Amino acid sequence: MLKQDILALAKNTSVLYVEDEDATRNSIALLFERLFREVLLATNGKEGLDIYRQKRPDLIITDVTMPVMDGFQMIESIRENDLDQKVIVISAHGDSRFLQRAINLRVNGYVMKPVMQDSLLNSITDALELLWSKRQLEELNSHLEERVRQEVEKNRQKDTLTIQMLEQVLEAYPNPTIVYEASTIRYINQALGTMVQKENYADLVGMDFDISQCFLQEKGSVHQLKDLRPGDTTPKTVSIKTTMGRKIYLVLVRELNLHGTPHVLYTFNDITLPEYQKIKIAQYTEFLEEFVFTSRSQKTSDVATPEPAPARQAPASSPATPKKQAELDQSLNDKEKNVLRKSHSEKVTAQEFVADIGEEILYELYELEELEEDIDIALEQFAGSPHKANLERVSSLFSKYASTMSLIFEFSDLSYAITSLSSILRNVEMAQLDDRKVVILKTYLKAIREDLQNWRTTIFVTRESKDIHYLDSSLFSSCLQIEYTLSGKEEEQSQEEDDLDIFF
Question: N or C: which end of the chain has fewer CB within 10 A?
């Protein structure tokens, strides 16, 4: 180190000089005052120890042999808590015993008396170089710590800004969104709070709340949140009962890194209406394919094979005789028998049911009212002109009615009954319809149409029905009665009863 560097470092250094001889202390103190920023003086080791504890000087220069407390005792006390304090010893003793003790106390210099200025300055220079290295290291560490602190603060501010922006975006985002850290909710927006019917949704932040407990356990949908994994490109849907009815959501999953910790973001996109429209389109497609197949079959076969039917005892029919009932029972397939025997022990009122299905589906059901008016017109046209085309028009309208009805899976049996009725009408052989059968057919169909209107009104309009399934089995019976009448078996039964009357 250059001399000027030593002098500059000394000017920023405080020194404690401990010496019991007044003349020596005063003489050397004059030299120290020209070198150091601050010079502290003590007459013995105890006084020096007290000053050290109060002032914490950068450098201590001390004599060894002194009254009250010698230099080595003072150094021993200092070393109990401070192994880094720079110390230079001045002594008249040069034997190995003194030197070994000085080494053991980790002194930084040993100057023999009488004190030679050059020897003292050399020891001071060595001590100041160590002090300078220590200060440089402290400054470097301080600088590094500051840089680290600044980077941490910068990242913290960046994370805080990112999180604030994320919270603002989530709250403004219309789709239900939630962010988890492991199983703990970190962020949630109002839309998701509404979805899971949590008015105080903000209270969920910081809680271990699994929103999958709100998922409906429906076939084809995800039942647990853990089944939704980031990076999985397979479309995943969940079904949830909300205040707006049952909803279907497509779930998107993304990974986030906040505060250096992995988070997972879940976004729920309402696809209820598109999903029901897909069902509706599939049903129309199925109907068209069946209609084309049936039309082609009729051209190649003289015998039409009606599909099984279902539904309600028509008002104009008389009680079935045992033989007639037996024939009806034999003509039923397993599905029809199941519906006729089905009893809905847990009755659901219209008010409860409509509150569950959602406004989007109710909007789709408005089409039923228009179809009822179209069926009335088609029935009048058929009664005035009982041709195949007019009856196929009636069949087509009933099929559309069934397709719209089937948007709600609770009425799949009812939809099946109407679909069966449409199939029966489509397969009627016009040559078998005389004026009497036309009148009977129109009477039955009009009664069914009126029943459907009452069903729609009492469930979806006035919502006064005490049981949404009150029409299921009776409508099946009506459809079966139409099939029985069109088959000609009713006439055979009537003729047999007339023949038996001759003998009574």
Answer: C
